[in-house]
Design a protein that fits this description.
Two copies of one chain form a homodimer. By secondary structure, the first copy, chain A, is an alpha/beta fold. Chain A is built from eleven helices and seven strands. In chain A, α1 crosses α11 and α5 packs parallel to α6. Chains A and B meet through α4, α7, α8 and α9 of A and α4, α7, α8 and α9 of B. The complex binds adenosine-5'-triphosphate (ATP) (2 copies) and magnesium ion (2 copies).
């Protein structure tokens, strides 16, 4: 039965997609786990990031599933050229779907049943969320066992983390769902911008202590360049700091899951 | 009668808020225009960015206005310590409000009437949008004369620009609203990351030609540091590249408005 991890953050551009994609690749390649990467963001950046190893997918969409059009998750799951890694099709209609969901009874639980179907086919399922705390992020949290929170080195991202943890608490209490915060991930750590970076890292340590991952993701242009080319950074720059950080993070994530 | 500019982009973290805030400051300080900065994003980053010059505001919220609770915009507009600059109160409830709006008839036109009231009191009104193309961004576009689109140096941001322009076209055609695209603003331009940066700048030039602003905003740590301290970058680092770029951009924006 798969472990399900929601990668969520309110703030834009903090590295949710970069983290979801590279963790999924690391889990598949280096930990040999059957991995599913679910794109919950209407921007379709998961497919863009893996364009060179993913077929162009046309057909059923996640919106069809969430809106109850009788589709099963197998219709939107597609293998990639990386053994062990499957992804869901992009769905630009998700933004509109998010609005429609608002009217549904139990609107936070529409993804859960779908993910449950997929659990038997995978070891780990990663959910890439959009940059907000709206219905899709709520659906991800209600469907997940764990929440991983990327936070880049800006105090605005820091404030977003605390807002997100309030939402997690509401999911736990009001929805009665045992969602665990796996950790908070410092991303885009820039030694050249040390003054701001140090301030945010200190704040994270002070506010969240053990929750903060030991592995920080450094600013590394190959992470961005891999995304442009749509190739895994593990192929483009296998020994670089970006690739290494995500490979090590995958190990740390699995350790925390074992310990939880 | 005020000119109303929506600062919008689907992609997270590309500098919408940094642009809306610094353009507003430049308009007020250097162009001597009565300026209103409206925060349409539930993250409340406008108030955070101007914390040291804005009083803590409690009372009516933009949600009250959008949801038709009979409040007027004057109840949420507050002067800052910068002559000519007023801002609206933060409203963390905007995310929930965005969901509620979905059910309303003419849901894109709820902000327009409110902004119309404010037009007589200001020369320019800037609307800072959340990182999506949802109801609040739609309301901003339907209330605005112009749309300014920040785009940072990532191909994902580039893709977001094209999605946004499709939405602008729909606002023009289906809603019959004469919204003009004022321009596309290259942000966070990093000479140290030139390979990716050059790729995106070339794409922008190729796809959008004259629409792209001449003034690009460079990566400049004082822009981030000013945001941390909640002070205008024009006080913190007045002769720096970040401050200068936004000051020059304000001039270019006004030129384009005159020419439009
Ligand atoms: N460690 C890093 N080093 C260099 N570039 C990075 C790093 N992490 C992310 N980026 C780049 O920063 C940009 C934003 O990252 P990403 O798209 O992963 O963020 P996001 O949180 O998913 O954004 P959104 O809020 O739009 O979903 C992308 O262009 C990405 O390539
Ligand atoms: N030119 C720049 N140089 C350095 N830092 C910048 C620059 N522009 C923006 N930043 C920093 O990048 C981060 C994201 O910027 P900002 O919050 O303005 O983006 P946004 O598009 O409004 O994000 P969101 O999608 O969350 O609303 C902030 O920490 C900001 O201080
Ligand atoms: Mg993303
Ligand atoms: Mg913003």
């Amino acid at each position: 039965r798969a472990k399900v991890i929601a990668v969520a953050a309110q703030k834009g551009g903090v590295g949710k997609t970069t983290t979801a994609v590279n963790l999924a690749l690391a889990m598949a390649k280096f930990q040999d786990l059957k991995t599913l990467l679910v794109d919950l963001d209407g921007q379709g950046h998961v497919a863009a990031s893996l364009a060179s190893i993913t077929p162009d997918i046309i057909g059923a969409s996640l919106s069809d599933i969430l809106l109850g059009h009788g589709r099963s998750i197998s219709e939107i799951v597609h293998p990639t050229q990386v053994t062990n890694l499957s992804v869901t099709a992009s769905d630009k209609g998700l933004a509109a779907t998010e609005g429609i969901l608002s009217g549904r009874i139990g609107k936070e639980f529409l993804l859960r049943g779908t993910i449950k179907q997929a659990r038997s086919d995978f070891d780990v399922i990663l959910l890439d969320c959009p940059p907000n705390l709206g219905n899709l992020t709520l659906n991800a949290m209600a469907a997940a066992d764990y929440c991983l929170v990327p936070c880049d080195m800006s105090p605005l991202s820091l404030a977003g983390v605390s807002d997100l943890l309030v939402v997690v608490e509401t999911v736990q209490d009001r929805l009665g769902h045992d969602l665990k915060v796996l950790g908070i991930l410092p991303t885009r750590v820039d030694r050249r911008n040390w003054r701001v970076t140090e301030h945010v890292l200190n704040e994270l340590a002070e506010l969240y202590g053990e929750l903060v991952f030991d592995n920080h993701i450094p600013i590394n242009s190959f992470l961005a360049r891999a995304q442009i080319k749509g190739v895994p950074v593990f192929d483009l720059d296998p020994s670089g700091n970006g690739a290494t950080a995500y490979k090590e993070l995958a190990g740390e994530v699995l350790q925390r899951i074992k310990a939880a």
